Amino acid sequence: MPLETPNTGPLVAVADPTLSGFAPLKIPLFRDRWIASTVSSVGTWMQDTAGTWLMTSLTPSPLLIALMQTAASLPVLLFGLLAGATADLFDRRKLLIFWQAWMLVSVGILAILTFIGYVSPWALLAFTFLLNIGSAMNNPAWQAIVPELVPRELIPDTVSLNAASNNLARAVGPALGGLMVAAFQKRVHTGAGAVFFLNALSFAGVIWVLFNWKRIPLFKSALPSERIAGSIRSGLRYVRYAPELQSSLIRAFTYTFFISAIWALLAVVARTDLRQGALGYGILNGSLGLGAVIAATTLPRIRRRFSADNIIAAATFYNVITLLILAFVHIPAIVILTLLLSGFAWTSTMSTLNVSVQLAVPAWVQARALGTYLMTFQGGMAFGSILWGFIAEHTSTPKALVASACGLALTYPIVRRFHILQGPTPDFTPYQWKRPAPQVIPIPGVDEQPTDGPVRVSIDYRIPIENYAEFSQAIHQLRNVRLRDGAIRWGIFRDAADPEHLNETFLMESWLDYLRSRERHTAGDHQIHDHVRSLHRDEAPPQISHQVYAREISNPTPSSDSSSL
What we know:
Structural class: mainly alpha
Radius of gyration: 27 Å
CATH class of the largest domain: Mainly Alpha
């Protein structure tokens, strides 16, 4: 059953108070996935620390160091939509195995090159980019399988546990990575190479869990699969006409764009301002992770007390303070404490935004929505890292940090208007139509295909004048449903000679797309549909016609009369 909340509160605030937040771990499949993911994430964060510190030993340039964050984020910006489309079209289990193997091989090659000393700043950036292509293509499918592993009511706690997994790794991994690099003080390449090798091994555990997973998809279309280009278009179309999802994307981009200065410049702050080595940098990075772990384990209780907007507001203003402290305070103990709370604020925000996306879309487009979210999130990280690295390169690191703090504070009054997780959760259960799909009667001798089109659907309503205002609002809600589900044009027209006669018309690219739109129709969509129909006043139901574009036939089949001449 979907979660229900008042319009004034956050969706996830209604979780069962008897739940501890750890209920998903009682499900064996999710627990195995969580453990394997945690181990792999530890390896990833070890690599992040070792790779960034290796870059500081290869070049003194703040811009090249900041570009390590860009190399990690840019692949999601470039491939996020493609990753989401493939995860919605193909078997997610097989895709995940492939991309986990891609990352294993990419890191393995980098480990070998680093061990033998054949690595330059640009080679390090290139292999970091290749590794994160695999991560970008993996992540939408990885997050989209969550509803296949746990009941829908456990999704908020599941997202928090996934955040805890990643941030537990973020707390432990940087310190381990820094420790391994520091153990080879005079041979940074050897220490970094050892970290890369261990990270490559960590992907093997995830592959093993995936091999043993007997997947049962939540949504499986009976129709032929979309092509990748069409799948991407339909995903973008959904985002365009889903205001709640758009709000989450806007909040994610603006937040990560400015906060990226922390991740991009922390190594420079550690080396230049705090006079720390690889282990010190690992501890600073780990402080962010430790704070994030605390946040992830306490978020279920926090969500029950505060709205999503209030959580993000508090996190935003605290991170303004964090950026200013990094700019002006050079006392390691104070910086560590500040980063600990910053990690808490970071995970509180990103977990809340992730939940808002998970709960805002139906199963058929979930991976594409998550791909768009990850693309937006990492786009903010990538572009922000370039900007703050450029400013630090040409002015100073403190000025770059102050600029990001000011930007974060000044943009908040604008983006706070985009609310998230408000109102009842939509019911995305696929709707079971009571009437069969209409059939196209073929023309003898004319070769027609399901992909032919466009298709025009026309619906006539009789709406009393006193219901006109209510109908106009309801029909424009239905407009978003039609366009999200695949319509390329939509309109509502009033008869000039008969004001009670209204006609709704929408176009689909093909007959096959029209059939897909029926599959995509959810129970929540149908509530809007029923509201529109309830305002119709006539003895007969609304008249519906389905019209397929009439193509010109160059050689029509002769009629029986003409053939007898």
